[in-house]
Structure formats: structure tokens, C-alpha cells
Amino acid sequence: MCWAGRMILVISRILLVLVHASAACEFGPSPYRTTGIVCRMTKPAGLLLNQETAQVIQAAFRNAKFPNITGERSVRLLGKVAYGLSNIQINNLSIEKSDVELKEENAIHIAIKNVTASFKGTLTYGYAGAWFLKLFHSVDFEIESSIDLQLNIKLMCQEDRLLADASDCYLTFHELTLHLQGDKEPGWLKQLFTDFISFTLKLVLKREVCKEINSLAQMLANFVLDLAANFVRDKDIIVDLSLASDSVIKAGYVESHHKGLVLYKNHSSILSESIFSPSLLTESRMLYFWLSEHTISNLASAAFLDGRLALTLRGEKLQALFEMEDTEAQQKAVQMIFQGTSYNDSVAKVWSLAQPQISLQPEGTVVKSLVAVEVSILPTGEESQVVLYMEKEITVTIQAAYAEKKLLLQPLDSSIKFKVFKCTADPSGNDPSIQSFMQNMISVAGIPEVISSIESALTSLMNNKGLNLFHLINPEIITREGYAIVQLDFNFPHHLLLDFLQKKL
Asked: Where is the Lipid-binding serum glycoprotein N-terminal domain (predicted)?
């Protein structure tokens, strides 16, 4: 129950892992043969994320290291003129418009219109001719520019990891104007150096800005992958997000396929045949996650092996369970079980005896598990005494949801079959009232209490991983036979990108 619900919602935190691709990797003949998790980002999500492109491009311009530019040219009457531009720094920068387009040739095209920027620095020049003797001058300069930028970001795979190649980068200059000391220099001097410098400067700007954009793209990709890998890792339990097959880029969406293997210490789940088909997902929401029953089931198994499927109840919680209804039969059963001992001196332990069996069905996630319950009393100064022990096979159907930054697990129906029942108050087992009371208590109050505890614990865990930083809009969890789909819209947390850029640059 614990990890079935968690897997459905936890994978939503892979919100940042929106695109993977695998052009450089080798996979089997079937494109979805070993897929355990599928992520689809649609065009509306791409348009939303493109609004953040301006921040990345501005960071690329500001972080670019512009080298000194030097040159020499023979000029009639003046002889050789040597020049150098140094201390080049960007001053003002603005972006008018940015568009994104998904191309089916495995690329994302981003067109950025009218990037206006000004550069400041120092111009040093000298010349020697018939009339002059090695005169050198230094003046401050400012360059005003208007640029269009085109990026074709190719998504490739390197050792099963995302590689975002943004080296296909073009700058088109609509304006490049040189000002020398506020235009106080003679017009011929300004014209002379504008002609000399423009071509070289364009090459330098293109090389340095495009290099920085490519570096930032890969840095962001690594940051996203590390963030996602950390989110699906909790101590010794890890979900393998390496690529399972080639990615798919259509005009309306980008889709990536991941293995979804569950790793626990020296244990690893095995690859299984996938039932994924692209037709199972639509394009009406921004983001989709397809999760196989195999992956979710293996997460539950890892949780069992790690001893996480256990719960301890004391005091008021224990009292609330055993006094769920004020009837004579209830009072009699409680008195017999606890032998008049206070709830504060008692403890109930619940744990899974075997790996839970998970089945995804249209009505919800069906969990079947063999569970043990032990109630002990701890009289003052004495050793604890087990007064009730039972083993039961529980089958419960759960519907999962996520709202107001909380995980919600709703039990729909359940069945209980007792395998072992031992009670100190009735060692012969001839009194059916205690077993009947426990049957009713477990189904009416016990299962909801366990699920409520799981909700709280998993919500806290997911928030510690950062899920609450994202604004998820109307997330839906849909279960079908053999798989589950999480679909949602979202608003991108702008501050996360700013924090990343400030820390890395």
C-alpha cells in the first residue's frame, strides 16, 4: 500500500526531466520492449518553459568570456593600422520574443528575436606611415547591437544519459554600431574602425555566446537528471531512469522511455515486456507519466525488503482504534484484550509478513498482503506481555490523488481473511466475540488509520524532495489494467531557475 501510492505520485517530481533522447545509444528491435516509465511533454508545456528561455540566454550573454580582439590592416596613406579591443563587457541586454518548435528530426528549434545588447570596452590603435611615427591611442568604446538567435537543440544519449547538444547555433546581426568616446572622434576614424572590426567582432560574439549557451544547456540537463535521480532515490531504494529506447519528437509532443528498474542494495528487478503504446497518452495536458504495474510492484517489494512496511500505534491513536464504537460488545472485547491496562501502557505493531502483490485495475490499485498484528501491554516494572497476535490476508483497493500539495490515498473496499488468531483472554478460541470485534475494527478503522499514516509520511517525504516547490494544476491519476497514468498541467517555478543560474554562474 505504501509504495504503490508513493510511486504513482513520486514520479510526478520528475517534472523537470521533460525530455530525453537516445540517438547515440543502441537498443533492442522493439522500441518499447523494456519500458517501465514513459514521460510525455506536450507543446503547451514547451511554450510555457520557453518563457524561461530569456533567462538562460541573458545568462549566456553575461557569462560569456569575450577575449581581446586584435587586428591589423594596411590603409592607403596611413600605412599599417593595428587595433585591439580589450575589457569587453556586456552592458544592457533585452529580448523581445522567443518561439519554440518541435521538429520530428529529433530537435527542438528555438528562435529568439531582437536581442538588443550593448558592449563596452577599450579600443587601442596605432599606425605608422609617411606622415606619422608610431602613434598609439586608447579610447573607450560602446557597441550597440541587434541580434536574432536561432538554436537547434538536438537530444542525444550518452551512456544512457541525456545530452542536450545546442552547438547548432546561429546569430544574425541587424545592427552593429560602434561609438568612440561618445562620437567625439572624427567621423573618418569611427568609420575606419567600424569597417575593420565588425566582421571579426561578429565571429567572436557568435563563437563565445553559442559556446556558453551549449555549456549552459548541458549544465541544465545534468542538473535536471541529478535532481530527478535524487528524487527517485531514498536511501537504498533507487529507480533506474536510464533510457530504454529511442525518444520520439512529434509536432505536438516530446516523449521519452525509461527502464524503470528498481534497485535495492544487491537486488535488482528484472526487465519485463512492456505494454506501452503511444495511443495510451493524449496531447490535451501539458505533462504525462505512464507507469507500468511491474515498476510499481517492484517498488513495493523493495520497501518490504527494507523493512518499511511496518507501523507502531500507541496512546490516543491506539485508543481511537479500539474504541471506534461505544457498544457493550466493544467494551467487553477491549476489557478482555487489555485486561484493564491503560492504552498508554500498551502498544500495537502492524507489519507485512511477505512482499505485497500489486495489481493495477480500472477501479484503482489493488494491494494484497499478508499482515501481522501484535498487541502488547507493558505493566510498570514488568516485561511486556503479548495479549493478541494475528496474521491475516488483506486485499484492499486504493485510489490515489494529489491535491493541495498532499498525497491522498482512499481505500474503496477491502477483504480480510484470518490465518492465525491468538488471544491471551481466549486461549481456546471458543469466544467468537473478540475475533468478530477485531474483524470489524480492522476493516472500519484499522485500514484507514494505516493509510492515513502512509499519506502523512509520504507527503512529508515528497516535500523534503521538493515536490511542494512546483505548482501542479489539477493532477489526475488514472489506473488501467497493468498500468497507471499521471497527467497534469503546471506552472514553472521561476525562482528555481534563477537560483540555479546564480549558484552555477
From this structure: 40-267
Dist CA 136 CA 491 (whole Å): 56
Instruction: Check if the beta carbon of residue 259 is closer than 8 Å to that of residue 295.
Output: no
**Predicted TM-score (pTM) above 0.90:** no
Q: Which of 220-224, 305-309, 459-463 is modeled with the greatest confidence? A: 305-309
| Residue 101 burial class via C-beta count within 10 angstroms: exposed 0-12, middle 13-18, buried 19 and up | middle
| pLDDT tens readout for residues 465-481 | 888 888 889 999 999 99
Q: Which residues, including other chains, have CB under 8 Å from residue 161's CB and lie 6 or more apart? A: 225, 242, 243
* CA nearest neighbour of 227 among 480, 50, 13, 472: 13
Cα separation of 242 and 260, whole Å?
8
CATH of region 232-494: 3.15.20.10
Angle at 206 between CA 201 and CA 210, to 5 degrees: 150
What is the C-alpha to C-alpha distance for residues 13 and 498, in angstroms, rounded to an integer?
19
Q: Of 313, 285, 293, 289, which Cα lies nearest the Cα of 488?
A: 285
Alpha helices for 372-431 (secondary structure H): none
Q: For residues 93 and 61, is the Cβ–Cβ distance under 8 A?
A: yes
- Tell me the β-bridge partners of 156: 163
Domain boundaries, the chain: 43-228, 232-494
pLDDT above 70 covers a percentage of the chain that reads: 82
- pLDDT confidence bin for 296, thresholds 50/70/90: very high
Please, are residues 404 and 457 in contact by the beta-carbon 8 Å criterion?
no
pLDDT at residue 28, as a whole number: 54
* Residue 505: per-residue pLDDT: 58
Rg of the chain over Cα atoms, rounded to whole angstroms, equals: 33
Name the CATH topology of 43-228. Answer: Bactericidal permeability-increasing protein; domain 1 (3.15.10)
Q: What is the pLDDT of residue 19?
A: 36
In 3D space, the residue among 389, 388, 391 whose CA is nearest the CA of residue 419 turns out to be 391
Task: Give the Cα separation of 388 and 112 in Å (integer).
Answer: 71
Q: What is the mean pLDDT of residues 123-139?
A: 65
What is the rounded distance in angstroms from the CA atom of residue 139 to the CA atom of residue 120? 11
311 alpha carbon, distance to own chain's centre: 29
Between CA 162 and CA 224 the distance in angstroms is 10
Distance of CA 268 to the CA centre of its chain: 22
Confidence of residue 23 (pLDDT cuts 50, 70, 90): very low
φ/ψ region of 199 (left if φ > 0, alpha if ψ in -120 to 50, else beta) reads alpha
Pick from 157-161, 216-220, 231-235, 417-421 the range whose average pLDDT is largest: 417-421
User: Closest by alpha carbon to 369, among 440, 301, 452, 275?
Assistant: 301
